[in-house]
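Researcher: We're teaching a course module on how sequence relates to structure. For the next exercise, students receive a sequence and then see the predicted structure as C-alpha cells, so they can try to spot secondary structure elements on their own. Here is the exercise chain.
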Amino acid sequence: MSVNKYNAEGYYDPTPYEALSNVSREEKAASKAAFKPLVYICSPFSGDTEKNIKRAQDFCRFALEKGNIPLAPHLMFPQFMDDNNEKERDLAIFMDIILMGKCQEVWVLGDVISRGMRIEIEKAKKRRQLIRYFNRDFEEVDSL
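Model: And here is the predicted structure for the students to work with:
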C-alpha cells in the first residue's frame, strides 16, 4: 500500500503523508526484526555430561543473543531417554536429524567432535545445510 502526498480533494497535505510514511517504515522494520532463524546446536553430550550440558546451555544463550532460536535436542531427549541404552541413543540421534532438517543453520561447538556430532555434521553436509563452527570461547572458526 502506498501513501499519497495529496488529500482526497487533491491538495498537497504533507503532515498525514509523513505520519503514514513513518508508520509504514516502522512496520517494515518490525517485521524484519521479528524473523529469528532456527539454528541447530551441535555439541558434545556424553562423557562429562554435567560440563557438556552447561556448555550447550551457554551456547544456546549465545545463539539467542545473536538473534536466533536455538534448538538443542540433546538437552531435551536425555530427560526421558537413556543415553547409555544403544537403541535409545540411536533413536535420539534419528530424531535429532529430523529436527535438524527444520533448521536454517547448524552450529557446531568445541574442539571435540563426538560420534553423534559426526553423524549430524555428515547429514547436514549431505543436505547442504549451512554449518558454522565455533571454538570453546564461542568465536567462529573455519572448521574444527
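Model: If you want an answer key for the exercise: The beta strands are 38-42, 69-71, 105-109, 130-134, 140-141. Helices lie at 14-34, 49-65, 73-76, 86-100, 115-127.
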